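Hello forum,

I keep getting stuck at the same step: I have a sequence, I want structure tokens, and every attempt I make locally crashes halfway through. Rather than fight my setup again tonight, could one of you with a working pipeline run this one for me? It's a single chain of 291 residues.
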Amino acid sequence: MNQPTAESDRQASDKGALGRAWRFRAFLLVVLAGVAALGFLGLRLGLPRQAQPLDPTLAALATGLRNTVTPSGTTTNPPPSATFTPAATRSAILGTVIYAGRFNGYTHLWALVPGDPRPVQLSRGEWDDRDPAVSPDGTQVAFASHRDGNWDLYLLDLHSLAIRRLTDTPGYEGHPTWSPDGRWIAYEALAGADFDIWILAVDGSQRLQLGHPGDDTSPAWDPHGRRIAFVSSAEGISDVFLANLDDPSNRFIKLAASEAEVVQDPAFSPDGGRLAYSMRDATDGAGSIQV
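Reply #2:
Ran it on my machine without issues. Output:
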């Protein structure tokens, strides 16, 4: 039997080393391809997305289109008496609280980062701004203001601090709440004999009436986007109702409330499984929070 020579051993060793080198190179190619794919995906996510079609379920809600919206695409210019330039907000680990506070005779928007010594004033002028609602992506605040004579809805960009008018009607609009996808705003409006809940596309293209009888106020959009809670006096007292956007045949569901109490400001839990609201006794004025 022939014994292996030193030369054959060396050749076998060289072949093994060459194979290991090619396997390592192939591994590097796979890693580089993965990095490139992740980079391309990040670039795509950072690019502006094309406008999505309007939700057909919401379009089916329309019971009228009175008071046609005439949104403005330009920044609202304050009158000469308002020379205040607000400071831009910043991101924070604990988040930022946006609220309405009264100072020097007027109510305006403020931002407070937990732990900061003082809040930042976001608006000022000889008018009232109130009912702030932060968009789901945290970049905009919808709010109500009568800076132009009537109570209308506006958008404040938290990065540029530009303000865009959303509604322009002779009536009243207030208490905005965002849909989870950030494309719609529900709000209360008084355009005739009673209050109604309306839904407005943020781009101003469509305005829809929820279509419930009685005075309807304080809308709150659920985290899944398919229900809107609101307060209604349709049965003579204030009750909390749910509007099911997916069921036209059984749109409204009443939640129990006592005749001796006034309910306000419903709010969903983060998972949408529970609903909290404030309750005030109509006889002694005592208030409480119910879930």
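The chain has a mean pLDDT of 75. If your local run keeps crashing, start a new thread with the error log.
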